[in-house]
Amino acid sequence: MFVHIEEFWDSEKVKFYSLRIEDADYFETDNFIERFSDSEHKRDLEVIIEALQTIGGKRGAEERYFRPKKNARALPQIKGAKLRLYCIRVSNDIVILGNGDIKTARTDQECPNVGPIFEFMNKLEAAFTNKVREKEIIVGNKNLIGDLILEIHYNRKA
């Protein structure tokens, strides 16, 4: 499958990108927000959005604001929150947002909801890092320049 990395939101300190899978008309992050905006996990979603606004407007994308999840990351970094939004923290001023779900197991890998998204984001991070290493993508000041279409060999279930 082909995954397009496209600009999602340019805030004061951070430019957020999101993912669009092949011919989808929507970003993965929009899908996430829409699914949980009127759910019992609305408060967790509000916490994630507030965290993104704070990171983007005041703090920058410092490592300490993200949950380490192998090579990808997750928001929020708040104990007790069940909802996870997965992302790739590229630098202090660039974050690639993905999709997420409700974590129902002890680990991400064991969870039927977030496990496939976790695996997908880690494969995406590996493909992204490879393109950066090969200089097909250049990481600049709040910008990603180059071939922002990644081919991921993965049968996505999420």
UniProtKB/TrEMBL annotation:
Origin: domain of life: Bacteria
UniProt-recorded name of the protein: SCP2 domain-containing protein
Organism: Adhaeribacter terreus
Lineage, top ranks: Bacteria, Pseudomonadati, Bacteroidota, Cytophagia, Cytophagales
